[in-house]
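Data card: per-record layout.
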Amino acid sequence: MKHTKLRHALTLGVFILIVGGFCVLRLVVSPPAILSSERRRPAKLPDFTLSNVLDARFTNGFEPFAADTFPFRETMRTIRAKTVFDVFRQTDKSGLFTYNLGGTVGAGKFAAVNEAEYRKFTAKINAVTERYLGDLNVFYAVIPDKSAYVDGDYPDYDHELAAGILADALPKLTAIDLYPALDASSFYRTDLHWDQTKIGAVVNMIVGSAYEFNDTVTVGDFRGVYAGQIALPLEPDAMSYVPVPHVTAEYLGEDMAFHGGAVYDLGADGFGSVDPYNLFLRGPQSLIVLTNTETDSARHLYIFRDSFSSSLAPLIAETGAYKTVTLIDLRYIDWRLLEQMVTFEPNSDALFLYGAQVLNDASIQKVNA
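The structure for this 369-residue chain is written out next.
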């Protein structure tokens, strides 16, 4: 009996020591203002009021607050990730996988094709086409998920399945097959996006030319969204861009007017922001107009797009194949406003260009169809 009481007392003492130690650490170690690896702010501690306690808002909010501000949180996340992959030998962690490419380890997400979402998405494409693009040459292309190019035992992106669904659902549009223009090295190892310096073949496939991009400028290290999500000490990518000296950019502002700005933003709202990929065309934007100031072409291209086009469109504009390239992101502007903001010139070209993961979520498009 004496030994049992002693054991219980020691257990209680160790528990109090651990909990008390973390409480002291929580007071000494200030929580970060930004969880940079996850590109978000930590949850806030709910107000400790009687009403919040009675309706459980305090207890429901305390758990995410405690998890986000836990001392040595990032270290703990890394230990858990290495345990999942190295000890238990799992192929994924919460839907994220690692792969080896040229002796370096990268990360990616399972991105199997969701046929139901693809068909909902294409219904919205058809609605936009019917309403606005009847006098234009209309094309579409899907940017394959990088999982399609990496060998591994996981439910990767099925290019042939996606192509079949899109061809069936978009019979009046012309397909551009980007699959052969890319490989695993075309993408950042730590992010879902492609590396702008490695998509020259994609540009030429879209504009139908053999333009060469020879100059690049390296900005710095880039740890993409997968690096933070997978919580492994991955070697960072190098973020570089291709100069486009003949291209100017105008952005739709909150005042619903267009204002000039840099094509590549090296400041706090661009490369220096929580998401360094915002280097390209200032990240999320509803409408952007790129103009080639040197070309003799009078052609117009309208790209209905996601974030991949932020790095692609400046290169298309630089080729001079088009006088203007208008970028339309229907995640951030209602499609019914386009008739007020965009003039669709007859006989111009329009391209619906989306990444495989975006096509898996039709709800993000502000289109009624």
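Known properties of this structure: The chain is about 35% helix and 20% strand. The longest strand covers residues 137-143.

See the next section for split statistics.
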